[in-house]
Amino acid sequence: MDREQGVIVCRAAREVVERGVLSGQSSFAPGLRAWTPDAADELFRRFVENFDESSDEFLVKLKRQISESSDEAIVLAAELLYLNLMPLSPATIGVHRKFEILDSVLSWASFEVKVPDALAAAASPGYMKGGQAFLNYRWAQFAFLIRLMRLLVKLPHDERESVLQDPWRFRDLAESVLADFDGKSRARAQYHVLLFLLFPDVFAPVSVERNKQLIRDAFADRLAEPTGDLDRDIHAIRLRIEAEHGGRFSFYDEPWRSRWEPPPPPRPQKGWLVRGANVDGVNAIPLWLADGFCSVSFSEVGQLPAGASRQQVKDAVAAGLPDAKQGKKDVVAGQLWRFLSGFQTGDLIATVDGDAVYVGTITGDAYYDDSAGRGLARRRSVEWNPTPMSRQTLAAEAQAKLKTVMTIGELTSVIAALATGAGLEEQVTDEVLAQDETRGLIVPALTQEFADGLLMPLGWLQETADLLTAKRQLILYGPPGTGKTYLATKLGEALAGPDRTSLVQFHPSYGYEDFIEGFRPRLGENGTIGFDLVPGPFKNAVEAAEKEPDRPYVLVIDEINRANLAKVFGELYFLLEYRNHEIMLQYSPDEPFKLPKNVFIIGTMNTIDRSVALIDAAMRRRFAFRALAPDRSPVDGLLRRWLEHKQLPLLPALLLEEVNRRLNDPDRAVGPSYLMTPDVATRRGLELIWAAEILPLLEDQLYGKVDDVEAEYGLPVLLAALADTPS
Predict the structure, then answer these.
(1) Per-domain residue ranges for the chain?
(2) How far apart are CA 476 and CA 456, in angstroms?
(3) How many whole angstroms separate alpha carbon 269 and alpha carbon 245?
(4) Of the candidates 214, 192, 30, 42, the residue with the CA atom closest to the CA atom of residue 118
(5) Where in 536-688 does DSSP place strands (E)?
(6) What pLDDT is recorded for position 302?
């Protein structure tokens, strides 16, 4: 933790809360009484009692719930969210995203409200990395803050003053609110953070209760009389160490941190599914829960040691299953190796018994115990939470992952959400949190600056972005020169950033092996030729997107209709529609593959090369379509706007309009991009563009329809026509 930044954040938080609770005055909107019982009650009714169970992002749901509220309730909501967001470092949420959330909420008020500069500066860097609660459960944290502040502002004034001066009385009040709250496990991190924000001299800057326990236990020798109260004991420990070492310190600095924080595992934590509801016809899960283990059968295979190598496992499987096909042997060997050597202590594990989902933590290496029979002999020690969750209450991504038919499946991308639901959020590492695909997807709103840069209306662009976000696949189609590829790339960069936007171009010889994965030759030793399975741009995009599941990744497919789409996409047709399902790819039959929700696809389609009508129904159902035509928004008038922006003559726009008037066919019209170049400022430049680009295009389009294209569409002919046109 950055101690200096923590002091700044605490001072700002104290200012906001103290002013609000004691005077009712807003810190964001001077003169507005936002911290009142009426405003708090309104916020409680609209947000807490009107719980939104949809899968939309927090900010989208919040807008539905409170955007029609009074100014007082809206500003109060923003100031409570400020308390929630301000401590978080950029590793948890970027500074831009913090203020995007706050500015969005404040924009719902009837007058302009901004976060004051001093408070904005205090919140910008943050000081702490948030855990799962701060990534996925902002609704619970926000509801806790509403409940607590609603209780505070209703106390008599002298009691409010007393509570804000007495850290232990404030803690007891906050604890009482938490105890009555159904989402208390998801809001507890906010509770711990708020204690530190308001009373940094008493409470430790620790948001995870498990870490508080570890700190107290590690330094128990500094306690003269342990109280059993975590916060009081840690406070006493801090005072003792400060007296010994002559000043303030942090439990997150050395040499203190290594005394209480467990050493990191040999590799990043992972999550696993192990099936046990039908082990050789027996439901093993009750025994697992009672005796604290999990197991796999494969009873035909002999005993293997913990940490066995892949080759050892393969040899044992070959001996135990001599008549099995090689494919089955490979699958069994892979499953056994995972259990014996792939799992590690500290990994999280889940199992499913009908609708019930149980989650636990692996606590030891593999061992062999056949006391309950060989089917349950191959074991791992597990500390289970015996209270099940309902499968139906889980995020769609988690439900999909639990459907795998394999005995063992990897759940790393959803295990954080499962562990949190089971009350084990404190066991989840930052690496696993970063991979949690159940987190809400952060898709930034387009700005007026972006629209102005494209010379296109913001409304049309935002509607296009919304279609892409909703459908995940979008095709921009239109005649040549309408800026399809340029717009697709710029839109991708605006939504995902340049580093998360990639482009591939289809062509008639493009196939599945080029796009997804396929075997490619390589030169081996002694000049021999071998083959490697090489991922294509699509699989590379998926791999990149999985590393940041809350950020979009955009793949632009230029000229998407020039390839045989059924051949290129193959089994991915299914995933384009069912994002939460897993399938086996034809070249990787032993590795489940899914298309993450944060992979967006933007295709471009030239309506001259091949009509949109020829796209098959399966493809059309999976993509949203957006037309770019010279006679329709946002392309109509684009050349005029560009010429005016560049302070160039409008003649090129008049020429383009005359060409398209004569063509009288939107699908074959000439787009403006041919003329969006400084060369159009001179007659010579126009002549070169006409001769080298526009006339060849028209000759190709009008082949067999017009005998002499130049006689009707040549530059001199059009200039003469414009000269004869009444102004």
Answers:
(1) 3-200, 208-263, 271-434, 448-627, 638-724
(2) 15
(3) 36
(4) 30
(5) 553-558, 583-585, 588-593, 599-606, 624-627
(6) 87
